[in-house]
Amino acid sequence: MMFMAQDYDDVVTLGIGEPDMDTPEHVIRAAMNDALAGWTHYAHSQGDPELRQALSDSLLAAGRDVSPDRIQITHGAMGALVAVMRSLLCDGGEVLTPEPHFPDYAAHVGFAGGKLATVQARFEDGFIVRPDELEAAVNENTRMLLLNSPGNPTGAVLPGEVLDAIAEIAVRRDLFVVSDEVYDAMSFDGPAPSIFDRPGMSERCLVVNSFSKTYAMTGWRVGYCYGPEWLMRELIKVVSYSTASASTPGQRAGLAALLGPKEPFQAMVDEFTRRSQYVYSRLAEMPGLRVNRPQGSFYMFADVSGSGMDGLAFAETLLKEEQVVVIPGETFGPSCQPFIRIACTVPMDRLEIAMDRMERFMKRHGETA
Ligand SMILES: Cc1ncc(COP(=O)(O)O)c(C=O)c1O
């Protein structure tokens, strides 16, 4: 879609999956000063000890006791996902994840020699997977459950009772759990619960997180993960032989983001909350569109079948007729053809223009289908 958009003028792009805000200045300055002071060499493969300590402290403040030696710093959350898949799937096996899902999971699992299997999460359930259906999809090859909450592309937050049930399944069926929580800072109804805090998870769960979305630091490529000690000994091998370490100035930037003023990041969360509420209220009024109230992240996943088009045709026609980019749902799994993903990653004035254009579009296509 981004490529096709180059043929049009004044396009509003609701396709980009990263904060549109730049990294706050105090973070950039701290990293620059550290680089000038000599922080330009390889970092320790497990990650800068000061950064791991600061992460451990911030996790403790949020009620999670994770010592620095159980934290691995990675090249973005992607680095953590690659490392855990390569550590646990070297002799094959299936990873089970709810669909719709972040599309890169299939590659992370496939590159490691495993297979991604999916279980349907339904629009009618707010895209919350049903634990009994998840368990029904487990077979003798299943090694791992891969969860993402708050979710990309749905904006759904898995509730505590669903996580309780999934944790119980993981223990009973002897499955490892990877919990991708890169959008945890953007949870609109209070802190997003984590499966990590459920009984039995300390030895079988890895949480993947990142500085990318929380601190508007996608380009610095710093992520992290934490989990059981036995796994940490494996992850460090993958990290040290694939990337050596995450970027040293990037890790110093992460440290500054963790230790410095929180206001710029809170302002970002407030802004995404405001934008998501606005977009939801506009979409909910449009004929031929169905959308769930977003609970987190900055995405919405709308059912466009009322337009008579699938998500791909919808996205192409919307671009052609109204110059708005959205992402076709099938990107997030074959069952997602009736959907589009909307990212609230442009300022309010551009979002208002995009919503006016979509409303006009739906008045033409939504009422006649
Ligand atoms: C669900 C999910 N996990 C992981 C990532 C990767 O994040 P990072 O930039 O930290 O590699 C993304 C990026 O869009 C994502 O949406």
Helical content (DSSP H or I, runs of 4+): 25-40%
How many domains in all?
A: 2
Determine and state the CATH class of the largest domain: Alpha Beta
CATH topology of the largest domain: Aspartate Aminotransferase, domain 2
Extended strand count = 12
Shape: globular
Organism: Oceanidesulfovibrio marinus
Protein name: Aminotransferase
Family: Belongs to the class-I pyridoxal-phosphate-dependent aminotransferase family.
Keywords: Aminotransferase, Pyridoxal phosphate, Transferase
Brief summary:
With 369 residues, the protein is α/β, with parallel strands linked by helices. The chain is 40% helix and 15% strand.
Describe this entry's structure for a reader.
It is a single chain. By secondary structure, this protein is of the alpha/beta class. It has two domains: 2-17 and 263-365, Aspartate Aminotransferase, domain 1 (Alpha-Beta Complex); 25-259, Aspartate Aminotransferase, domain 2 (3-Layer(aba) Sandwich). 40% of the residues lie in helices and 15% in strands. The chain is built from twelve helices and twelve strands. Strands 2-8-7-6-5-3-4 form a seven-stranded mixed beta sheet, sandwiched between helices. The chain has a three-stranded antiparallel beta sheet with strand order 9-12-11, with helices on one face. The chain has a two-stranded parallel ribbon with strand order 1-10. Helix 7 (160-172) links the parallel strand 5 (142-148) and strand 6. It is globular and about 60 Å long. The model has no long low-confidence stretch (mean pLDDT 96). Bound molecules: pyridoxal-5'-phosphate. Pyridoxal-5'-phosphate binds at residues 17, 76-78, 102, 148, 152, 180, 182, 210, 212, 218, 223.
